[in-house]
What does this fold into?
Amino acid sequence: MNTVETTKGLAVVTGASTGIGYELAKCAAQDGYDLAIAADEAQIQDAAMKLREFGAKVEAMQVDLSTPDGVRRFAAGISALGRPIDLLMANAGRGLGKGFLDEDVHDAQRVVDTNISGTILLVHDIGNRMRARGQGRILFTGSIAGFVPGTFQAVYNGTKAFINSFSFALREELKDTAITVTCLMPGATDTEFFERADMLDTPVGQAKKDDPAFVARIGYDAMMAGEGDVVSGWKNKLISAAANVTPAEMLARQHRKMAEPGSAKN
Ligand SMILES: NC(=O)c1ccc[n+]([C@@H]2O[C@H](COP(=O)([O-])OP(=O)(O)OC[C@H]3O[C@@H](n4cnc5c(N)ncnc54)[C@H](OP(=O)(O)O)[C@@H]3O)[C@@H](O)[C@H]2O)c1
It folds into this structure.
């Protein structure tokens, strides 16, 4: 990474190459922030080029955030910028469809390592920098999936239950500081997520989904307003409200109807 010099604030966004993360980075760039962004594949450099069109200085790193080494390299790259971090959007994540016993266990492990382990390692590092400085805003991309036992997506939903829960707890721990913690909880969103999770033959894989720009805007605005959590879209608000009063066994049964492999009509 090259050192940049500017008077604007710095926003860190993980998983910014596509989907919700790219749109979150765009919100920050449009708002006048410079960016440090990361993703696992080379496409992150294409995203950086597009984000520069909004006037932001963008440092992009291709790092595997499912590994401690990848997180360390990203954190070191951010340090090399020599700038305080104003915003952290911990968004990188991946899904995985199919029955748990039919999944490659290493793929399942990678979902946990990316969505949970890599996320908490990075947030621990940057959260401490924010605390030392006495300010900062953190946004997690959780999910309404975290409220529902994810039959045929069991590991993924479990990771999102972790993120939702972790976010609320961290917010409470930091309530007497000037660091805000917000959890964005989207429903099904039109990104590369379902294809990557091998879920295109499921009803949820084929359903109409929310626009990632719409979802990201809701999350970004909630973070800037210092809100604790936000569910994007009224249908998802209804789903999450219903999930809170429905027995877990029934939720697991309903999730089968959305996510059973090969059960899509087309
Ligand atoms: N789409 C939905 O329906 C939905 C709903 C609720 C919540 N979410 C959450 O939203 C977040 C973003 O997902 P999305 O829907 O925008 O999907 P997406 O388009 O597949 O984006 C995922 C992003 O995370 C990055 N990523 C994945 N694994 C990584 C790793 N090991 N190291 C570094 N970067 C990694 C990807 O980069 P590479 O391509 O380079 O790996 C990509 O930039 C995830 O946390 C997801 O769980 C999605």
In short: The pocket of NAP is lined by residues 15-21, 38-41, 43, 64-66, 91-94, 114, 141, 143, 186, 188-189, 191-193, 196, 212 (CB under 6 Å).
